[in-house]
Design a protein that fits this description.
This protein is an alpha/beta fold. The chain is built from seven helices and nine strands, in the order H-H-H-E-H-E-H-E-E-H-E-E-E-H-E-E. Strands 3-2-1-4-5-9-8 form a seven-stranded mixed beta sheet. A two-stranded antiparallel ribbon has the order 6-7.
């Protein structure tokens, strides 16, 4: 289930978040993901936010499904040409062998910590053979809320890598860094991409 307080923050600050993240889609992680997914394939942008990534996926010739639990984020994402955005939670994903890529960029960090592994297992089921899963999370331990009320689940790079490999993915990309979030605080993060065999 989605955390209502987190959703309320995103609904209230959708425009501010869209402005803050407007250049995120031009980084190394996204570039690597597009290269790793079969050209013209179907991608799920899981937790798409305002749709910056989904828009560029569509422009690059991919078929794009985008979902987010925030109604206001879905409105912003739906405004982009070529993007089909729907209001859905992580636990509503029930596809099997359907996607060439699943992109969960700083989205699963809002799921309950004890639910993340199950979400990853379902994502892997939704991938076709040779499909690619991208995940980016804030690095750390436990669960807590940030300064503006969003709930986060934190994982170490090793924990995330273990979860991906235990579901049958082969790690093909790793990255980490530190960035300022919408609440103004600096946070460490880790991103991984795994390919389904």
């Amino acid at each position: 289930m989605s955390d209502q307080e987190t959703l309320e923050v995103y609904n209230a600050k959708a425009g501010e978040y869209a402005e803050l993240t407007s250049n995120d889609a031009y980084g190394a992680d996204f570039t690597a993901f597009l290269k790793n997914v079969d050209a013209g394939g179907r991608i799920l942008d899981l937790g798409c936010g305002p749709g910056h990534f989904a828009k560029l996926m569509a422009q690059a010739g991919f078929e794009v499904d985008a979902t987010d639990a925030s109604v206001e984020m879905v409105k912003l994402a739906s405004a982009h040409d070529g993007v089909t955005a729907r209001c859905k939670t992580f636990d509503q994903l029930n596809a099997t062998d359907h996607y060439d890529g699943v992109f969960a960029n700083f989205s699963l960090l809002h799921a309950r910590r004890d639910a993340v592994e199950g979400h990853i297992e379902q994502i892997v089921r939704a991938l076709k053979s040779d499909g690619v899963f991208h995940i980016a999370m804030k690095a750390g331990i436990g669960e807590k809320r940030d300064r503006i009320g969003r709930k986060y689940s934190y994982f170490s790079a090793d924990e995330l890598e273990d979860m991906l490999t235990q579901t049958g993915l082969t790690i093909i990309y790793r990255n980490q860094g530190t960035d300022k979030g919408m609440d103004g605080s600096m946070a460490d993060w880790v991103s991984l991409q795994g390919r389904k065999q």
